[in-house]
Amino acid sequence: MEGGKREVPIFNYKSITLVGLADLITDTEIIEVKNINNWKHAVGQIFAYWYFASKYENLVKKQLQPRIHLFGGIGISDPRIELCKSLMTEVFNHHTTSTKVTYVEKFIEYF
Asked: Region 18-41: what's the mean pLDDT?
């Protein structure tokens, strides 16, 4: 992927603890990819990864936009997409106004 890295380790550098592996980081976004059945897990993961990556902006050079990319489910009208968007807005409310939830019915691994 041009301009992005996959499976990027995110650390809490204060305690030198691995927070987890961000699925994808591009020049502008930190992205968690999940089956729509696990959308709630995605919200928690993207917040943790975004928070710790943002805390050490000198490592990523800028504030990244948190994004969840969902796949599966019953299509673009799946109510879980709106639930995910709504929860993302609530979770990130005091931190950033720029969040994104994207969706594709079938996920094809290109990497």
From this structure: 94
